[in-house]
# Entry
Amino acid sequence: MTGMEDVTEELAENTRGEFFGRRKPVLSKSGMLLYQSNDTATARVWSFLERTLLPVRARDIVLNRFPAKDIWDALSLGQLFLRPDFDFRQKLNCLGFYFDGGKIDNVCATLSRSGYGWYSLAIALAMDLAAGGKGDYAYIDNWWHPSGGVRYTKLDWRVPAGTMNDDLLGLITEPVLYHTHHPYYRLRCRKVKNMNVVVVVRSILESLEGNFFKVGNSSFWPEVTLDDEDSFNWDRYLDDDIEFYNSWGDVATWHPRCLIVRYHELKADQVGTLKAMTDFWKLDIPLECLEEALKRTSKKAMADKVPKDEHATNSRVSYRKERGVISESRKKHILGRLQRELIHDLGYDYSDSHEWGHVYE
# Structure
């Protein structure tokens, strides 16, 4: 095996590990992680408290704040030092990373299926062009390979442990920002409180539907099929989206440098919005380089890089034209939960007349 297949096998092995996380991993028949179960003692206690004493989803705010965040961080650090797959030097590096966050001052927190692969590629090309490079890229093994390298890294223990670049196929070159799909309270880095944070969100219904099609089209998760809506664990993915909205919505109320970007606004004004984001991160990318990079990463240009026999199965470019096809009963259930459980809507109207299902070019 080579390329992405090696990474896939490694991820499958990691999900079987004893120290994958506090939540039990639920694996696909292929051995790949399908999702992490929320059926934990901690979750059951929170559910009981929110039914009896506390407001709905109080956990998403309490866990964001002192002292709960600091206590959970300390427990995570304790768990880190029990990991058999890290040597002592790696554990010390992780401890230092928790306090200083490395050399990067920028974070991009994104709801899943909100375009990060696209605009992070555009940023990489723009920075390459600004430095006099080719600003080109290739599609290899379901992954984008920019000629100037990938300019971000993930915000987790793999960075200080020194394994992240291997997981990203050795493509990382002088990263300028961290990326995460996690809510704030699951991040183990105190420096985030003083970083430049951009939070990119999308309609939760669009995000869920995108994940359904992504998982249903992939051979990694054979039990999920597009002709059976019930084969996908909608509520489990919805749990993640709700905690992401509530957690980062809370952060935006107190963080000194936090910018909320909505996906439909980014698509409507790609150059202006991406320029605002990169300026917020103090990347100093010339406007003309961003304009050219966005031309080279248009949906058509990216689609032309993907072999025709992978159009239906790749997870980097969506070719589907059907949008907003979730059944009415499923949509009603999702909106009902959002109306009850969202503390922060981040500018979206999740009433029964919520607009979604847009086709973006």
